[in-house]
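**Tokenised fold:**
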Amino acid sequence: MRQVAPKSGPSKSMLIDARCVACGRTYDCHGPLSTCAACGSMLSCRYDYEKAKETLESSKILGRAKDLWRYAEVLPILDPTNVVTLGEGHTPMVRLSNGLILKDDGLIPTGTFKARGMAVAVSKAKELGLKKLAVPSAGNAGSALACYAARAGISAKVFMPVETPESIVTECRAYGAEVVQVQGNIGDAAARMKQSMDGYFDMSTLKEPYRLEGKKTMGYEIAEQTGFELPDAIVYPTGGGTGLLGMWKAFDEMEKLGWIGSERPRMFTVQSDACAPIVDAFSSGSEVPNPQFPDGVTVAIGLRVPRPFAGKQILSVLRESKGSAVAVPETGILSAMKSLVHEGIFACPEGAATLAGYTRLRDEGILGADEQCLLYNTGTGLKYLDLLK
């Protein structure tokens, strides 16, 4: 039987506060938080890393539960009895026939890496006494919220585009969430949600600080599973970009903990050429995505984010890491899904896009044959069976 997070023990959060990434204003974490009240930017949690070192040592965590809660000292739940868990995290890394490494978050509760963020965010919501949670979602964030809210005994309301696969809509309703379907994209779903909050707390991407904390465990696991020798490059499918920012935050934290040095992987964003606001901004040298970037429909519904809230921060990570951003055609995404299936990996279209992106990056000489590269599959393809007919 898979272990679940311990209810008590030596692991205790070393949370200090949350800080605005833009203006630096700080907030205590004893009440619900959204974005910075001063400038509207995202908040990021801070911890006492020196104190965390006393118990969170890279050589001493191997005996802990094989889930993301093994990093409890740098997660924001102050009382372990508030942890809401299904054993999420610690997903495998698989070597493909072409030598690439793929980390497979398709094998996680709800079949999506969104479970990482929602497990932590819902746990914190429970700790703060919140009873009603809402989210706009292209699909998988909604099903993850519905799942963890059900386990926590909290009401959930999910606003989704009408193009969301019926399997995901059914999944959300099965967990007991109220589903509101909206014409348009995730931005339109968010606008609709704001009109009918009715006491619900907004769990939107990076509009509260705790989903980021769950997503950063992706970076911790990559480091641990590679023996703290980080790959040269990470190719990641980017919609809202929480996972990309989370991994980058994890690398910074691990350096503070003394687990790794200052070297970092080159970070690469992959988007569909049907909706590629980060690629457009990166190639034009802009510091922020075009706020009027047109909507575009893609089979990779998680990449249909024409105006990402944290676009400035995403672009900063790509440039600081000496990475890049690449768009791939819809046909390339579908072809990559079929290629990965032949390796036994049933990847979601967003995850498969990383293989198509890697191929293009190699063809253009941006990534070298000697660079150790990790692809991140963010979910299972079982929710998208119609794409492989």
